[in-house]
Design brief:
283 residues, alpha/beta, TIM Barrel, 8-stranded parallel sheet, two-stranded antiparallel ribbon, 13% strand
């Protein structure tokens, strides 16, 4: 399937019709205060319209300030946060959501995700997300780090199919079967850790591709994500890298190079395994 990729303002359409910008800024590990405020401001100045945070990153207030400082209309910025593992369960999820809104200084979120599938709790948590969605406090709801069987658990009790599944995704962890399952059910796939926690820069194959297209290694990987139909949120707090990461709309990877990257898949995780993680210390 060919995905329409035009420019930094481009979007993929979620299963409820909401347009989600396909390139965003991730802020994991960006320190609250000046570092994250600047990162958000620089990204928005460069034309990004999507920022992804979470309570466990401890920088929601800085993200909110960066958005405020940009002076962009609220509806122009797609803001994502997540419910953390210790806040699972119906009532606790509602409270956690309200706290995120307060930290971000916002009236609503564009997307709210279940951060990890905490065993025995994530279906109740999903029902709380459905309630927030029905109350129009959030424009779209989804999950993060859910494998097929966990998605099936949710879909069995859900009135509303998740709109997004945000997964560790990079050349060593493609999980094509999971991508296919999500596409079949119109669940938008999204990448975290697209650059393999920096390990991608050590791969000679990507140096060759970067030379071939006269692009950086990061630009090759991010372009690969978008051509796969995968939304991606590279993390950086450096102005030049934020700008450079978005310079991926003046070239296209050939089908053979897309397949070459697909074939690098080793089912190798750098982050925790969704089937086997210590929920209290996953980050």
């Amino acid at each position: 399937m060919k995905h329409q990729i035009s420019d930094l303002s481009g979007t993929f359409t979620l299963n409820n019709g909401v347009e989600m910008p396909y390139l965003g800024l991730g802020v994991y590990m960006s320190h609250n205060g000046e570092e994250v405020i600047n990162a958000v401001r620089w990204a928005l100045e460069a034309g990004y319209r999507h920022v992804d945070t979470a309570p466990i990153y401890r920088n929601e207030s800085g993200v909110g300030q960066g958005i405020k400082d940009s002076n962009l209309p609220r509806e122009d910025v797609f803001v994502v946060s997540k419910v953390w593992n210790s806040d699972h369960g119906y009532d606790k999820t509602i409270k956690a959501f309200d706290k995120s809104l307060e930290q971000l200084q916002l009236d609503y979120l564009d997307l709210y995700l279940v951060h990890w599938p905490v065993v025995g709790k994530y279906t109740d948590t999903w029902l709380a997300l459905e309630e927030l969605y029905k109350q129009k406090k959030v424009r779209a709801i989804g999950v993060s780090n859910f494998l097929r069987h966990q998605l099936e658990d949710v879909m069995e009790i859900a009135e509303i199919t998740p709109m997004v599944n945000q997964m560790e995704f990079h050349p060593f962890l493609v999980q094509q079967d999971l991508i296919d399952f999500c596409q079949q059910h119109k669940i938008q796939y999204e990448a975290w850790s697209p650059l393999m926690q920096g390990k991608v820069f050590d791969l000679p194959e990507f140096k060759q591709l970067a030379d071939k297209y006269n692009k950086s290694i990061a630009q090759i990987v991010l372009r690969y994500d978008l051509q796969k139909g995968v939304i991606t949120i590279p993390k950086s707090s450096k102005k030049q890298r934020i700008i450079s990461n978005a310079n991926i709309f003046d070239f296209e990877l050939s089908q053979s190079d897309m397949k070459f990257i697909d074939d690098m898949d080793r089912n190798h995780r750098y982050g925790p395994d969704p089937d086997n993680f210590e929920w209290s210390v996953v980050i």
